[in-house]
Design a protein that fits this description.
Helix content: 25-40%
Number of helices: 10
Radius of gyration: 19 Å
Strand content: 15-25%
């Protein structure tokens, strides 16, 4: 049975509680004050770098089948990926430094690097909001979020200045996906030329909104969420759970304090997007959870992942990536007013749900290769229609 455990993992629950509070607090609305200029962009991942966290090979061991997949050879890639990692910093300051720390590098690997077979990877280091910034931000200190967003926006503008006519896929989770919601809403969706460059987007765990009963009309007037197989130029977005939560920070636009404090659409006239990857990919087979074999470095992120996997350890193997032994299927369900992608494990594997955040840590990694397959098809479709 999947449940919220306590007792021996009490200290992790405290960390989870802090994390949950932070998600509701760190996205403070922008003030009208004139902001100081941001420093030059520091890239975590870029084709200009000889080596970076997004370059790791794709060889994978499946712990259920024992099958080992060989590395994917580098080839001409039709599009670029603009990736913004989620909350990972261990910093005690209001904002993380512009430093590619071990936990930031790990964040680049765990959600971004799996897409490197499809696109050239661009991922900025940004001064993301730290957990200690939660309370003051909630009390009205808007600058931490503004600092983080300026870094992301400036990196996007720097990328555009040298991108040429290439297509782009946006990728982000958690805090990074809130940043990209705002970026796409303000910088891309209103501009037809830039809209035409969008091959797709994957914005997980960030309450992307649409008008009720529509694929647009919330965050974006023109760029729709994906609803069927064969679409490109659309947004994949969901938060996941393995137990229907009676209360959550995710999945309910009416109670969405995260979007409200960020100045993003929220309220009963909107619904939180849930795009079913089985429907969009056409692949309804049970899928596993795929992660880099190297465990997440010590700190906040490692604690959340340890709790998610407890009592088992992080899946690992001699390959660069490992797929766990469990298999599951899912569907977009709305229960208790919370609209999320509900996972049902058909081959058991222990998964613990985080209080208020559900299975937030697994949004990308559950059925990861299915998502990567969607991105590859969208890239190919964009390329065929752009010439």
């Amino acid at each position: 049975m999947h449940r919220l455990r306590s007792g021996s993992v009490g200290r992790l629950l405290v960390a989870v509680g802090v994390a949950a509070a932070s998600l509701s607090l760190v996205f403070g609305a922008e003030s009208t004050a004139v902001a100081a200029p941001s420093p030059p962009t520091k890239w975590l991942c870029s084709p200009a770098m000889a080596s970076d966290p997004c370059d790791i090979p794709q060889d994978t061991t499946d712990l259920l089948t024992g099958r080992v997949t060989a590395p994917v050879a580098e080839s001409a890639k039709p599009v670029d990926c603009f990736y913004v990692y989620g909350t990972a910093t261990n910093s005690l300051a209001l904002n993380a430094d512009l430093v590619a720390s071990p936990e930031i590098q790990a964040a680049g690997k765990i959600h971004g690097a799996r897409f490197n077979r499809t696109c050239r990877m661009f991922a900025p280091v940004y001064r993301q909001v730290s957990l200690p910034a939660a309370v003051p931000t909630n009390l009205g200190l808007a600058e931490p979020f503004r600092i983080a967003y300026r870094d992301v926006r400036n990196a996007w503008r720097e990328y555009l200045a040298q991108a040429g006519n290439r297509g782009v896929i946006f990728i982000a989770d958690s805090q990074g996906a809130f940043q990209l919601r705002k970026l796409i809403r303000e910088e891309v969706d209103p501009r037809p030329v830039l809209r035409r460059s969008v091959a797709g987007a994957f914005l997980m765990g960030a309450n992307v909104t649409t008008a009720r009963g529509s694929a647009v009309g919330g965050d974006f007037r023109h760029i729709p969420v994906c609803t069927r197989r064969g679409e490109y130029g659309c947004v994949m977005a969901y938060s996941s759970n393995i137990v229907y939560p009676p209360v959550s920070l995710l999945g309910n636009s009416t109670l969405d304090v995260l979007s409200r404090s960020a100045g993003l659409p929220n309220g009963p006239q909107y619904q939180v997007a849930c795009t079913d990857p089985a429907v969009v990919s056409g692949n309804h087979a049970p899928v596993g959870i795929t992660v880099p074999s190297e465990p997440f470095p010590p700190g906040f992120g490692a604690g959340l992942y340890a709790y998610t996997w407890f009592p088992e350890a992080w899946p690992t193997s001699s390959s660069t990536w490992t797929t766990g032994r469990g298999r599951g299927v899912g569907s977009c369900d709305e229960v208790y007013g919370i609209r999320e992608y509900h996972i049902r494990m058909v081959r058991p594997q222990p998964i613990n749900q985080l209080p208020l955040l559900d299975t937030h840590t697994l949004d990308f990694n559950f059925g990861f290769d299915r998502l990567v397959g969607i991105a590859a098809r969208q890239a190919a479709d964009w390329q065929s229609h752009s010439h």
